[in-house]
Structures are given as structure tokens and as C-alpha cells.
Amino acid sequence: MPFILVADDRPLNRHFLMTLLTYYGHFVGEAADGVEALHAARERKPDLIIADVVMPRMDGPALARALRADGELKDVPIIFYSASYREVEAQAIAKACGVEHVITKPSDPEVILQTIARALGVAAPAAPPPEAPADPREIIARLQLANIRMTGLIELMAHLSGERDPHELLRTACLAIRKIFGADYAVLAVAGETHADGNVDRTRLETLLVRVNALLGTKPIRAADDAKLVAAARDLMPDAAAALLLPMRSRGNSYGWMLLANRRDAPPFSIDDERLAFAAAGQIRAEHESLRAIEAELRTYREDLAALVDAAPVPIIAFDRHCIVQVWNPAAERTFGWLAAEVVGKKNPAMPPELEEEFEGLARECLAGNTITGVEQRRVRKDGAALDVYVHLAPLHDANGRARGFVSIVNDVTALRASRESLRALSARVLSIQEEERTHLARELHDDLGQLLTALKIDAAKLLQDLARGVKPAKRVTEGLLPLIDVTMDTVVRLVSELRPSRIGEMGLAAAIKKTLADFHERTDIEVERFIGPAALHVSEAAATAAFRIVEEALANVARHSGATRVKVTVEAGPDALEVVVEDNGKGISDAARTAPDAYGLIGMKERAVVLGGTVEVSRGQQRGTIVAARIPLGNDSRVHRR
Predict the structure, then answer these.
(1) Are both 393 and 491 inside the same structural domain?
(2) Within its chain, how far is the Cα of 225 from the centroid?
(3) Do both 99 and 152 map to the same domain?
(4) CB 257 within 8 A of CB 248
(5) Residues 150 and 284 in one domain
(6) pLDDT tens for each residue of 507-523
């Protein structure tokens, strides 16, 4: 039989056509709009498509154009299905789209069947003949009964299309089908789930399933009296005298079945019952399969969402309307210290009591439909440590659009704030040092260089006076002038050396560190040991300067704080980075001193490395002493030292 695809955004229209066409033996598929219809047609090519003209996402004309542009589907006939008051407009649209046939809503079943037959190029199916000539009144009564049952089925399918629970869908369908067909018993076995209605022996369900599955084929079975189907039904319904078995199939495979049974005092099932029940079974199967597909998609979506929440690097916490925690992701566990099992179902333990009222106010605002971003608050860890956080809130809605809770995304900015405070303190320290250096330089220039230049000026003026009078200059002036110039030059060199590590530019990194260590030993009497790898002689100027200043600062800390008797400096250059390690055998740095916000020397070392993309780690030795380990990446800077 032909496969017909019905595309309409109104479930009632779809169900009417599906019931009618299935009743007359057609295989029918359904789609809620043009997008779904196009996808379904590409999965299984239909023999005919009946499409509503007006649909969301993709309407009938757009669907027709898409089909005509598809090489596999361009020859599939199309019928437009439109409201009767828009028939003229629909005919014009159909002509423009190359669609030959239009059915109006509502239309008599005969008109629909004849139009479908013309579109398929076949004869219209005849109405199912009566089983035997009957009185006209009997025929009218049968038609009225069939009409009542068809109306009931359409209403049932419209109701089932709004159902969201597959289990409830089958339960409702089983109960409704028994009532619509006036059956004494009904059993629905679909996708591993079984439902029964009527006075049945439920302890025998498994036996019934085995016997019915052995009889199940691809076509309905209508039986009475001592037939095998009735005998199988009596396992569950001892007084069954007539039975009707309707198979459900999906993509050529068995999907389940529906069994109706009557007692001996009830009339047997007719051909009309068989056709209508078979149509109903097909639609129940379609609704259930669609719902299972939606559930599978939602399950995948939930799993993906849960994976994203679990993998998120920041705390994500979901609350219900009463601020009770529903979700507490791994990042929240790491940040606050409480496990999800300790928190879910309770108030947020990380919330300080004095901030609860403020947070509940934010929650009320969020539940009113507002998204809240960048609120700065404080939280506490399980160990009592305080955290500075930025909080973002967004409402969560149920299926009806009502706020059922909210989600909170938390950014821990404690380290960032501490870093900013350290940076501000460091900036202030730098400014203070600059002022001290300027004051020191001014004093040096005035006290040393100024005095030397003044002496030079006086001697030069005396020399000029003597030469102008033709008098031989005094021996003190001539012999003291050059030494005075030498002292002045030495002073200038010393001042310049203090302003920048000129030893690097003049001597190279290795020689500069060697000279610095010699000066350090002479000044402090602390033994020094050094190892400078050959590759360290060929590093960029920026890396060499940073390494030299880090060594200088580390040595200054050794002299001031360590109480050490020995220090070792190691400088090695690898393929990617310059490694600098300064170790002493002193008392070792404490954790408080290592993390103190006013440890400007340590902060300065770290900042020098960070500027070049490197790091500085300060730690205690295994037994005693302090280890300063710097890693400075080596770029492709052509300005390298080769001494």
C-alpha cells in the first residue's frame, strides 16, 4: 500500500487524516511542520505528501519548493490542505508552486479519498463492504457507530499528543480504547511495557505475552469461539469468546500489539472494528515512538548538560524557589570544601548568616524573571576561610514557563583581589623606591660629583688665570688635575652602574653574576658556590637582566633574613627556558613571610619573571634553608649576550 506523509501543525487535523487513511489500508506518517516533513521524507520516501498551507518554521509552499529542489524527492506528488474560506488563495498558491491538488477543511471523506487517488494515479478505494446484506437501518446504525468511534479516536489522539509521559500515554490509551470499542477487556503490549484494563488475571500476563507473540504477524487477527487467539486470551480472561489482535510495526519491525476481547454475551468484533482499531493501534504506536524519541533526546540533553556543569571550572549551584540547593557541581566542592552529598537538599552552607537576607532578596528578584550579574558578595569555606566572589543569577522555568528556581554561577575573585592589592602595594613601593632613588641620586650628584666638578672648575679657572698672566701654573694644580678627572669619571661610572646592571652589557651574564657573588662574599663573609651552564652565555638581554636582578634580590634576602653560612647559585639554559636557582642553608622562609602582602622583594622577583611569561617559586628546603627557583622562557630575541 502507498505510504502517505501528513504535515499539519494541528494534531486534530493530522489524527483525522491518519485515522481515515489507515482505515482504508494506507501506511501513514506524520509531521508537525515543513521542517519535520522534509526530514521524514528524506528518511523514507513517501508516495504522497499532504501538507497544510500555513505552518510554523516551514509552510506548505516552502516545503513544496524544497521537495522540488531535491533530486530524490522532486517527483513526489503533493496535496495542499487548506481552510475552505481560503480555497481560492490556496488554489493560486498551489498553482504557483506546481501543486495540482487542493483539499479544503473540512471535506467529506469521499472527496479526500478521491483526491488522494487522483494524486497517486489509482482508483479510489471503495468503502469496506458489509459482511452480508443487511437492513438499511442496520447499515445506518453501523455507520453511526463507526462515526462515534472515529470521533472518539480523534479526540483520544488529540489528548495523547499532549501527553509527556510514555507510561501514562499507554495506560490512558488502553483504558480509552476499551471504552471506545465497548470491549470487555483490553491489553496493550508496547516496547516491553504491558497494560491491561478490565477484570483480568494479571498474574497470567507473562503467559499471555508468550502465546500472543507466537501468533503475532503483520496483519490484524479477528477471531471467535475456539480459535487459537481466543484460547490465548482465555489465559488472562477466562470467559473471553471473541478477540481482536492488532499488530504494531515500526520500520518493518514489530513494536508491540493491542488485544481486545469480549465475553460470550457481547457481539463479536466486526470488520469496521478491525479497521478502526488497526488505525488506532498505528497512531498509538506513532505517538509512543515519538514520545520515546523525545525522551531519548531529552535524556541526551540532560546528560550533556550535566557533563557541562560537572566540567565547568567555576561553581554552579542550582536552587529551588526556597533557596534550597538542588545542584552542587564539582567546582563548588573544590571551591567551598563541602561535598554535594553534604549540601543538596539544604541551605547553602557557604552563605554567611549576615548575607542571607540580601541573597534572598536577589533570589526573589531572579524568580520574578530577572537575570542578575556581577553582584559582589562574600562566602566562607568549610575550613572557615573567607572568599570574595562575584555572583550571577538566572531563573529556571518549568514546562509552563513559571520560575521553579534559579541557578547561581560563582566566580571566586579572592586571588584576583589579593593580586590587585599586591599590585597596588607594589606600585606604591615602586613609586617610593623611585623617589628614594631620585633623592639618593640627587645627593650623590651634589655631594660627590658636584664637589668634584666644583674642584675641577676652581683648578681650571686658576690654570686659565695663570696662563693669561704668563705665570707658570702651580705644580699642585697641574699635577692634581688629571687625578681629579679620574676620580670624577669613576664616580660617574659608579652612579651609572647603580642605575642599571651595566655589568651584563659590559661583562655578560656569567661574569656579572660572578662579580656580584664576589662582592657579596666580601661584604657578608657568606661562602658562595656557583654553577653557570655554557648555554646561559647566549640568552636574550631581557632574560639576562631579569635573571641578574632575581639573583641580586635573592642574595639581598639571604643577607638580611636567612642567617645562612653558605649560598649556591645555579644558572642553566635549556632549549626553552633559562633556569635560575638560589639555595641557602639558613633558617628557611616561613609560610607567613612567603605570602606576606608586603614582601616586596619576592613580589618584585615574581613580577620580573611574569613580564617575560616565566615563574618564580619560593620554598623551604627539605631540611633547612630557602630555595628560590626562577624559570624564564627564552624567545627569539636576537639581542643576546655572548660573554
Answers:
(1) no
(2) 61
(3) no
(4) yes
(5) yes
(6) 678 888 888 899 888 88
| Predicted confidence band of residue 80 (pLDDT cuts 50, 70, 90) | very high
Same domain, 612 and 569: yes
Instruction: Tell me, yes or no, whether 145 and 159 share the same domain.
Output: yes
Q: At CB < 8 A and 24+ separation, what contacts does 90-99 make?
A: 90/53, 93/53, 93/60, 93/61, 96/61, 97/60, 97/61, 97/64, 97/65, 97/68, 98/64, 98/68, 99/64
Q: Does residue 210 sit in the same domain as residue 174?
A: yes
Q: Grid coordinates in use for 214?
A: 507466537
Q: Could you tell me if residue 640 is inside a domain?
A: no
- Residue 162 to residue 176: CA distance in whole angstroms: 15
* 29 close to 6: Cβ distance less than 8 angstroms: yes
* 147 and 244 housed in the same domain: yes
> 3-class DSSP state for residue 328?
strand
pTM of the predicted structure, to 2 decimals: 0.50
Alpha helices in 501-598, H assignment, sequence order? 502-507, 509-524, 541-557, 591-595
DSSP state of 641: -
Strand 27-31 to 48-52 pairing = unpaired
424 shares its domain with 407: no
Judge residue 333's burial from the number of C-beta atoms within 10 Å of its C-beta, 0-12 exposed, 13-18 middle, 19 or more buried. middle
pLDDT tens for 254-270 read: 999 999 999 887 788 88
Tell me, yes or no, whether 506 lies in a domain: yes
Residue 298: inside a domain: no
List the domain range (segments joined by +) for residue 457. Answer: 417-499
| 3-state SS string for 349-399 | CCCCHHHHHHHHHHHHHHHCCCCEEEEEEEEECCCCCEEEEEEEEEEEECC
- 193 Cβ neighbours under 8 A, 6+ residues apart: 166, 167, 170
Of 475, 499, 523, the residue that ends a domain is: 499
What CA–CA distance (Å, rounded) separates 288 from 169?
7
The better pLDDT of the pair 375, 451 is held by 375
Domain count, the chain: 5
How does 457-493 read in b/e, with b if 16+ C-beta sit within 10 Å? Answer: eebeeeeeeeeeeeeebeeebeeebeebeeebeebee
Nearest partner of 26 among 275, 227, 208, 201, judged by Cα: 275
Residues 570 and 629 sit within 8 Å (Cβ to Cβ): no
- Exposed, middle or buried: residue 125 (CB in 10 Å: 0-12, 13-18, 19+)? middle
Predicted local distance difference test score (pLDDT) of residue 353: 93
Query: Is 638 a member of any domain?
Result: no
Residue with cell 583581589: 417
Q: CATH no. for residue 106?
A: 3.40.50.2300
Q: Which three cell numbers stand for residue 459?
A: 683648578
